[in-house]
Amino acid sequence: MSELVALASGAEARRTNGARERMVVCLNGGQRRELTGTWSASLEWFVKALAPRFPRLGFLEVRYRIRSWRRLELCVEDARAAIAAGGGERTLLVGFSMGGAVSISAAGETGVAGVLGLAPWIPEQLELSPLAGRRLDVLHGSLDRRLPGLPGVSSASSRRGFERARSLGIAGSYTLIAGGLHGLALRAPGGAVVPLPRAAAWARLAAAQLDWFAA
After folding, report:
1. Which CATH class is domain 2-214?
2. Partners of 3 in the β-ladder
3. 150 near 187, Cβ under 8 Å?
4. Alpha-carbon distance 48 to 16, whole Å?
5. Which residues contact 167 (CB under 8 A, 6 or more apart)?
6. Would you list the DSSP string of 71-86?
7. Pairing of strands 112-118, 135-141
8. Where are the beta strands (DSSP E) in the chain?
9. Considering 102, 179, 186, 201, which has the largest number of Cβ atoms within 10 A of its Cβ?
10. How far apart are CA 11 and CA 4, in angstroms?
11. Mean pLDDT of the region 94-115
């Protein structure tokens, strides 16, 4: 069962497994247009797949006030509010697409152990210093790319961001998922979450990353 949590920033979160000493805060992607935040199909599928496997971890999915990279600072405020609301002694930030940049920007908060990027957007101008003393682990689909009318982040782009972090001494790993697209799932017109090809591989590799955090 999930419960809704009002965040101090004015955003909203959905908590699964209740409040735990170790929390996984999941941060959504975005777009150019400044639209009201929505729940992420990819992160919803991620939580439904992994929360039962890790009952000692609490999961918190964030719905931003404004889901746009043009208002990235507001998304980071929402992330920080979610970390505080989670109340965990240790927190892992899971960032999908634009959520990668949001997670990295919020990683300096007390108790954050690291960032797990799912097809993360790590722009060249993004400051990586909040990752100091944390981990950055990246999973990315090999077929991910921007197409006309469709969102995407190339694996080459996230790899450059990851290597930039490594050059600063940030520990972590980078895994390319053969045949993976941009994300884990889509939302059907009726609201159901439909897994994309290779979603099971995303879940298996993400579970391996959660193992170290849960240990």
Report:
1. alpha beta
2. 15
3. no
4. 9
5. none
6. GHHHHHHHHHHHHHHH
7. parallel
8. 2-6, 12-16, 22-27, 57-63, 90-96, 112-118, 135-141, 171-177, 185-187, 193-195
9. 102
10. 11
11. 97
Closest CA to 108 of 134, 136, 71, 82: 134
Give residue for tokens 């992330």: 79
Q: How far is CA 34 from the centre of its chain?
A: 19
Say if residue 150's pLDDT is above 90: no
Close Cβ partners of 200 (under 8 Å, ≥ 6 residues apart): none
pLDDT of 73 higher than 90: yes
Contact 116, 91 (CB under 8 A): no
Give yes or no for a contact between 13 and 23, defined as CB atoms under 8 angstroms apart. Answer: no
Retrieve residue 215's tokens. Answer: 């240990």
